[in-house]
Automatic annotation (TrEMBL), chain A:
It comes from the Bacteria. Residues 68-87 are annotated as: Disordered. Residues 1-71 form the BON domain. The lineage of its organism: Bacteria, Bacillati, Actinomycetota, Actinomycetes, Propionibacteriales. It comes from Nocardioides turkmenicus. Signal peptide: none annotated. This is BON domain-containing protein. InterPro entries: BON_dom.
């Protein structure tokens, strides 16, 4: 039952046009609903939690969503790619 | 050793209005460290024209040619053709079963691109068997690899460096970190076969946000997963040494 609830919520987060987040995982832990994964902004995190809240599961929502690191200045450096050795 | 062709790449930036301002300042002046910027799909979050406009505004700040493939998110609203037109009107090159070449100071860069599609990997892939829906799913995956192969064949031996750009992964090594159950929805081994058969120097893809950056095809072609959550930067630069030095 808990597993089904979690999968239903994940599906709704993936298909709700407000979110369309495919990388969010939901787990039921006792009285808690743990929502994890990664989104690109604080606004997107809040919308995911709003969609979960609308389900009125009676469980306490635990927000473990991470924000994608903002791309940093200067880039990550260069990697040299040598020609592949062909047989 | 000749100078390398410098290929900057990122994928899965999922642009929408809430992310405006995140990329443009970091892409201005990118010509100092790269000859071209390749974007491996999922340019937008929901595939709307408004989001494509945000992508064009942000990535239009790059002062090098911008070459992209679309991703599954860019198809979500059924506006992929309009998105393609908008990006091309803004001077970007959208590759879908097509290829192009660019002349750089270090030589000629050839890029063939395709979104790709699901299929899975050897021994764990969809099969062209059973219901019409299953056959349609499988044959679309195979077809995307066939069009990538043709686009790469069209480049021939002309480029000094050849890059294959896709959204879906051509190998499973760069999916490590993603749940194994969803690997067939993240990549397609036939893309890897096309890459191995056509003299590619570097394969770039996105789609697997929880995967890892580095992998190899069975024949040893370097594969890089440049999904933004993986590289944790605005772009990565690959200095690809031209083949004539081998």
């Amino acid at each position: 039952m808990n597993e089904q609830l979690a999968r239903d919520l994940e599906r709704d987060i993936a298909t709700d046009p407000r979110t369309n987040e495919l990388g969010i995982r939901v787990q039921v832990r006792g009285d808690h609903l743990v929502v994890s994964g990664e989104v690109a902004s604080e606004e997107r995190r809040a919308t995911v939690i709003e969609v979960v809240r609308e389900h009125d599961t009676g469980l306490e929502i635990v927000d473990h969503i991470m924000l994608s690191a903002e791309p940093g200045p200067g880039g990550p450096g260069h990697e040299q790619i040598e020609p592949p050795q062909r047989s | 050793m000749p100078d390398p062709i410098r290929v900057a790449a990122v994928g899965d930036v999922h642009l929408a209005d809430d992310l405006r301002g995140r990329y443009a300042p970091l892409l201005e002046g990118i010509s100092e460290e790269a000859d071209a910027l390749l974007v491996a799909g999922d340019l937008t979050q929901h595939g709307t024209l408004e989001e494509a406009e945000a992508f064009a505004d942000e990535f239009g700040a790059a002062d090098v040619p911008v070459l992209v493939v679309l991703g599954n998110h860019d198809y979500h609203s059924g506006a992929e053709r309009d998105i393609t037109r908008l990006l091309e009107d803004r001077g970007m090159t959208v590759l879908e079963g097509t290829s192009t070449t660019l002349d750089t100071d270090a030589g000629r860069l050839g890029v063939a691109g395709v979104k790709g599609f699901c299929l899975g990997f050897l021994g764990r892939s969809a099969a062209d068997f059973g219901e019409p829906q299953m056959k349609a799913f499988t044959s679309h995956g195979i077809e995307t690899a066939d069009v990538l192969r043709k686009a790469l064949d069209d480049l021939g031996d002309e480029p000094d460096v050849t890059v294959a750009l896709s959204h879906f992964a051509p190998v499973d090594e760069t999916l490590v970190g993603e749940p194994k159950e969803i690997w067939p929805f993240l990549g397609n081994y036939r893309l890897g076969e096309a890459i191995d058969e056509t003299g590619v120097d570097l394969a770039l893809h996105g789609h697997a946000h929880a995967g890892r950056e580095k992998g190899l095809t069975p024949a040893g072609v370097p594969v890089r997963n440049v999904a933004q959550p993986v590289i944790q930067a605005a772009f990565r630069v690959y200095d690809v040494v031209p083949r004539r030095s081998a």
